[in-house]
Amino acid sequence: MTAEIDQLPNAERAVAVRSMFGSIASGYDRTNSLLSGGVHHLWRRAAIAALKLQPGQRILDCCTGTGDLAFAEAKALREGEVVGTDFTPEMIELAKGKAAGRPGARTSFSVADATELPFEDDSFDSATVSFGIRNVVEPIDGMREMARVVKPGGRVLVLEFGQPTGIFGLLFRIYSRHVMPLLGGLMTGNREAYEYLPRTSAAFPAGDAFIRDLLVPAGLEVEVAKPMTFGTAWIYVGRVPEGGEA
Fold first, then answer.
1. Fewer beta carbons within 10 Å, N or C terminal of the chain?
2. Taking Cα atoms as reference points, which of 9, 10, 233, 202 lies closest to residue 115?
3. Which of 94, 122, 81, 113 has its CA nearest to residue 28?
């Protein structure tokens, strides 16, 4: 399945990726916690700190999955609104089920494609995406859409995997290629999904390449580009230019 997805035309690939995420939705949270050793919680906290949230803001979280980053943003905001979107209905249903009784700003979740966001221009203070932009069929379209819906002077944040180097990088690649598919398959029943996801991480631009290929072409000004855990993950923050800025 995984090799076939890579070769599909864009429209068919989007359907296949949506189906894949739907098939692993019920075990997604548990599997993420196991495979990351819980370090993804630290990455999310660092991302939120880089976003410089202010109470009362309206934030969009694209490719929200089951809503973990959206809920963390809502807690940090205390008041305001966080809107989570994902093109996988099964993920959105799980996010809605997790929302009851959560502290902080109000949250809402809806099904939407990151490349065709159903929001007006300049309607959010910031937009975020966590470990999802690489699974968008046309990532640059997703980046441009996030920039479009964010007000001038606002921020677009991306938290995404990188490609660590050296001894740690070698160990990480072994883990990604062999351990992740085994454990992910055992926990979700879909080993092929956890072969596909590490492969997309290994092929996706990171660091300077991400800035060159995605952040700057989306019309964003580089504010933060920060590696974490030896480059296993990166935080990128781009600022939407204000009137008259290039």
1. C
2. 10
3. 94
Predicted confidence (pLDDT) per residue in 22-50, tens digit: 999 999 999 999 999 999 999 999 999 99
Range of the domain at 108: 2-239
Through-space distance between the first and last CA atoms of the chain, rounded to whole angstroms: 43
User: Which tokens hold the place of 171?
Assistant: 């160990």
The answer to whether 88 and 57 are in contact (CB under 8 A) is: no
Q: Is residue 245 part of a domain?
A: no
What is the C-alpha separation between 62 and 119, in angstroms, rounded? 12
In whole angstroms, give the CA distance from residue 134 to residue 142.
Answer: 10
| Residue 86, φ and ψ in degrees, nearest 5 | -155, 150
Is the entire prediction scored with pTM above 0.90?
yes
Helices marked H in the chain — which ranges?
A: 2-7, 10-24, 28-36, 39-51, 68-77, 89-98, 139-149, 166-174, 180-188, 193-203, 208-210
Comparing CA positions, the residue from 49, 52, 50, 70 lying closest to residue 60 is: 70
- Tokens 């351990």 belong to 179
Number of domains making up the chain: 1
Q: Is residue 88 part of a domain?
A: yes
Calpha distance 115→143 (Å, rounded): 8
246: in domain: no
Give the tens place of pLDDT for each residue, 196-220: 999 999 999 999 999 999 999 999 9
CATH number at residue 200: 3.40.50.150
C-alpha neighbours within 13 Å on the C-beta side of residue 44: 22
CA angle at 15 for the pair 121 and 5, rounded to the nearest 5°? 120
